Every structure is written in C-alpha cells, then in structure tokens.
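Q: Sequence in, structure out?
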Amino acid sequence: MEESFIPQDSVHSHKTRSCSRGAFAIPKVKGFGSKSFCSLGCSLWNSLPADISSIERLPSFKIAVKKYLMDSL
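A: Exactly. Output:
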C-alpha cells in the first residue's frame, strides 16, 4: 500500500511549497477512482494544517486530526 502514496517532491524536480511540507501527489483518476482510499487519503493529508501533519507521535496526531475534522464540520 505504501507504493500508492507518492511524495510530491518525487514527481517533479522543481521545489514548491507542497514539496517542502511533505505533501503527496494526488493520483489522476476519473470517475469511480476519484473516491478511492489513495485519492481521498492524499487529498485529506494535503489539506491538513502544517502543525498537525508535523506531529510525530501517533496518539497526539489522532487526537489533533479528530479535533480538526470535527471543527471543520
């Protein structure tokens, strides 16, 4: 499954803001594939604020993501 998530900086050689914050390339798909785990997972990760995506401890990360998602509803 790990090979499905491609870091943005390995897609092209020029540096962008998304490369520097650890964003993932969103797969180019049409129709049914746009709702796949890989596509939605990459989109969700890229939409997280930098202070959440940089949390290293899993329990702290889970709490922060849940709070972020609940606040955005």
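The mean pLDDT is 78.
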